Amino acid sequence: MPLQANPLLNRFLIVSVIVLGIAASSSAQNAKSHPWSNPSLSPDERASMVVKEMTLDEKITLLHGTGMAGLSPMSPLAVHSNGGAGYVPGIPRLGIPALQMSDAAYGVRSSGENGRYSTALPADVAGAASWDLEAGYEYGALIGRELRAQGYNMTLGGGINLTREPRNGRTFEYLGEDPVLAGKMVGAVMKGLQAQHVIGDIKHYALNNQESGRNAVNVNIDKRAARESDLLAFEIGLQESDAAAVMCSYNRVNGDYACENKYLLTDLLKKDWNFKGFVLSDWGGTHSLEKASAAGLDHEEPGEIFYGDDFKKAVESGEMPATELDDHVQRILRSMFAAGVVDDPPQKSVVDVVGGFEVAQRIAEQGTVLLKNANGQLPLDATKVHSIAIIGPHADVGMISGGGSAQVDPPGGNAIMPPGKGNTHWQDHIWFPTSPLKSIRVKAPGAKVQFDSGADPAAAAALAKSADVAIIFAHKWESEGMDLDSLSLPDNQDELIAKVAAANPHTVVVLETGTAVTMPWADQVSGILEAWFAGSRGAEAVANILFGDVNPSAKLPMTFPRSEADLPHPTLVKSPKATIDADRQGWKRIAAGLPVFQVTYDEGVKVGYKWYDAENKPVLFPFGYGLSYTTYSYSNLNVTPGKNPHVTFTVTNTGNRAGAEIAEVYASLPAAAAEPPKRLVGWSKVKLNAGESKDVTVDVDPKYLSIFNVEKNAWELLPGDYGIMVGGSSQTLPLKASVSLK
Ligand code: BGC
Fewest CB atoms less than 10 Å from the CB: which of 34, 377, 597, 721? Predict the structure, then answer.
């Protein structure tokens, strides 16, 4: 049809041409007035161009958040926040968007109170138990997508503090006890996240290994031990991912608060590791202006106790160098350009609920560890099991999650509350509506599946006695802002399990915990699964494993000790007084610096398995341990020395079903290194059909074989004989070879 024949279409085309024309001319104008909008320039070039155009006030705006009730004064600008923990206004005249930050450890936090929805993945520690970098990437990518869908462009996730103290209430938010595993996993999560054009953040830098007295504690540790343990995890995470932000932690490290610790922030992070991004303080973790700024803190959260007017005045009067200010601003802007939040701002959209469930379930299946399976108790055969007793508090309706700033709101609210009354509050015990009872009924439609809460152990035992199989769902809740008094299951669950196991020899325990727990009943039950805080689809994942639709492959990212007495510090050092009272003056007292108390990590580098190995202490379940429904054998170890020693070996699936084996490679260093007996230096997750063999190669990064030489301030590969050990757990290493390096 000729154009003039349709006036309506004609009008549309003309309008379109005009609109396109305006867009083109405005983008041409933009390019002229905002030359930094050119994406072919480097993030650093773009940021420096913007910094040159900025007024002092604009620069100060980027240095701090806009406040948080109870923690700092609120600015009226906070009304533009998207509802996350942090908000930093943008600079519209220069085309710089606001920073909208949300906590997002295992999903986007506070969705409920903002009238939104987000997927709860299994807790981070479960992700680590998958030892699967692709799963880590998927984990980060899902969170990144949901952050964007909800209008956020920066995560506050990425916790990586090592499980030096398994009673730390945040262990579920972290990635286990080994720096190589934790560093590589957080790197994968950050890559997935930043690929969605969201600023990634790794936290809490550093040595925030306990919550008790976190705003006051001074952590004492020697430099070499710190570099080879907790700090190595950060070093690897940043190297792997280029995460654009690092959150400094609340505690003091060797005398100085982490957020004003020049060694941590400048000497190490910004100089040695060449970190180009920005450092933001944990919420209320800033304690000074000049000292913090000179030490390398770029941004204060949540408000402007130090980094607002006082910063401005100090620059105006010449007390603080303008170059220091510019460096902070440059780093924040370059991170925004590098992560893509300027070129590709988030568009609010509907979260992909179904897609999120699929990812959450897949990762839960990959992260659930089979710890015991006596006499092939599992998988259950639905055609042969006629009756099942499901026992445990709330196992009829849900699975528990970890609390604090990581807490994700479950769809429909807390499963144990009346519908619509399930708003989440700080440190509530939140149960996700993923029902073990229902999921198991789906798997065994022909069986009589009955439930008992376990409130009366005798009644639960009677039900168990009448069933073919008893499955107990046991839990231990934990959260930010608290540490666990012990590693025991609470609320008489040990007694419940013992009674049920005595009544039925076919008892399987499913653990919902964020950390290691002790198991006085371990010898009495026939099966144990560690499901961690299993997320939105935990019950479906657990049921798939119980009935063999999924062959478990996860391995423990932390040692399960036999008792607290075997920990490096049998008693956790708590602050002499409660850290703060929740009053309006609390933030002022934190900011001024609470009276210090000391914690000394004299176990040094001996974190987790390195401790138990060195001290010859038997454990309940070792690091790297996890069973499968098939079996594997290892053969043909070969180690080729060189810059990146090359370790090759063969793994064979010797059982009768397909599976995935996490093949672990450990090294022992020459005696002169005076290191613990072994350290993890690499691994490979190998998928194998029944009877199949595969040759595996693991190239070892020489840093993982090195010691940190404090005098030379460098990693050093000592000449000598290195032992290389390969196998399926840190204590089952059938292949051994020795290689001489240098
Ligand atoms: C936590 C951080 C969190 C921040 C913002 C702090 O209490 O330690 O991990 O990102 O709050 O919610």
Answer: 721
